[in-house]
Every structure is written in structure tokens, then in C-alpha cells.
Amino acid sequence: VEECLSDGCNINITLLFGVENYAEVAQAYIRALETRLKRGERVDNIASVASFFVSRVDTLIDKKLDEKIAAGGDSPKLNALKGKAGVANAKIAYARFKEIFSGDRWAELAAAGARVQRCLWASTSTKNPTYRDVIYVEELLGPQTINTMPQNTLEAFRDHGRLRNSLEENVDAAFAHVKALADAGIELRAVTDELQTQGVGLFSESYHKANDTVRQKRDKILAEKGAGAAARGD
């Protein structure tokens, strides 16, 4: 990521779940801009986003909470923790974003025209029908962010969504929710690591399938070309 950005590529760093990994990505972006500035190259033409997959965090944590309930856990207490981790994680990430893109180090880059690396919220359709259908839009609103919501979620938000600077609301409560999950035996870092491992596996599988399809088509075309040349006596 750092090398490509320093070479002038604009990058969407996707498949992010954990705040720790996000911070590494943001720091790589800053280092790349600093490298360009030292080389006397422009930094005002570089853009990047850090893409979080939001709803998948709730999907996996809700599953783990259900497993604890089925094993005899405190049902009311555990049920109260459902459907909140995705937004809490995003709010904590946004707080980290504001920390990283501030201070003297960033001010020097900003003075040269550098743009912040914006947080992008992906996977923002509501998977659980019992949750508000625009929860991952209403609760993820803030400056310098992007939400790649699907069409049905966009239409729902246009119909009954509420606008406010929600990413900067109740940040302390977001940290408290992560602690409550840990007290219940669910570590958010372990969940986000698990999701990232799963996601990389799925992305890798799709990549190899695409390569195999192209390879098969190429081999077929070359074989047909060779057969045609043999028939003509070329």
C-alpha cells in the first residue's frame, strides 16, 4: 500500500474490520505522502480511502452471542449486546481517524495540499430484519467519510433516514460496548481478525477462479488457432 501510494497510485484499501489494522493503513498513507514530498513530488493529487465492512461485525458477534445464550448464558444481558458492535467499531475507528489526521505531522502535508485518507463504510445494508433498515447509514454520518450503500438502503434512507453528525456522538459508549462484549467473553479484536482472515480467503478464492477462467479461455483460443493453422498447412 505504501509503495503504490508513494508511486502515485490512488488506492481503495478494502476488507478492513479492525481499528488496529486501519491505523496501520492510515500510517502507511501518511508515510507515502511524506516520501513523495521529500522527493519533490505532488501530494495534492493523491487520494485514498480505507474501507470498513460494517454489518459483518454484527453478524458474527450476534452469532457468538446466540451461542452463549444457547449454552445457558444470561439471555437478557447478552441479547442487549446484539446489533451494536459494528457501529461502535466504526465510531472508534473514526475517532482514531481524527487523531491520525491532525497535529504537526499532518499539518505539514496538508499545507502542501494533501487530502486525508477518508473512511469508507461498506457492507451497510441491514442483514438482520429486526434492526432498523438504515442503522448503518444513520449512525455512520460524519465529515470526510463515504458510505457505499446499496440501492434499497439508499432509497430507505431517502424515505425516512435522519441526518446528524452521528459518528461523533456517544463515542465513550462505543468504547464501553466493546468492554461489555469483552466482559461477556467476546473480544472484538479476535472477531475482526477472524472476519479479515475469512474475507481474504474468499477474495483469494474469487481471484484464482477469475484467473482460471481467463486461462481456460486463452488455452482454448490458442488450441483452436493451432488446429486452424495445421489444417491450412501453415
Produce a short descriptive summary.
This protein has 234 residues and is α/β, with parallel strands linked by helices.
Annotation keywords:
alpha/beta; 234 residues
Broad shape: globular
Spatial extent as radius of gyration:
23 Å
Instruction: Note the beta-strand portion.
Output: 5-15%
Distance between the termini: 48 Å
Largest sheet: 4 strands, parallel
Spatial sequence of strands, sheet with the most strands: 1-2-3-4
Query: Strand pairing plus helix content: what structural class?
Result: alpha/beta
Counting DSSP H or I runs of 4 or more residues, the number of helices is 10
Low-pLDDT runs of 5+ residues are none
User: Kindly state the mean pLDDT as a whole number?
Assistant: 95
Q: Helical content, roughly?
A: 55-70%
Give the helices and strands as they follow along the chain: HEHEHHHHEHEHHH
* Strands, total number: 4
Question: How would you describe this structure to a colleague?
Answer:
- The chain has 234 residues and is α/β, with parallel strands linked by helices.
- The chain is built from ten helices and four strands, in the order αβαβααααβαβααα.
- Helices cover 61% and strands 9% of the residues.
- A four-stranded parallel sheet has the order 1-2-3-4.
- Helix 2 (19-38) packs parallel to helix 5 (85-100), helix 3 crosses helix 5 (85-100) and helix 5 crosses helix 9.
- The model has no long low-confidence stretch (mean pLDDT 95).
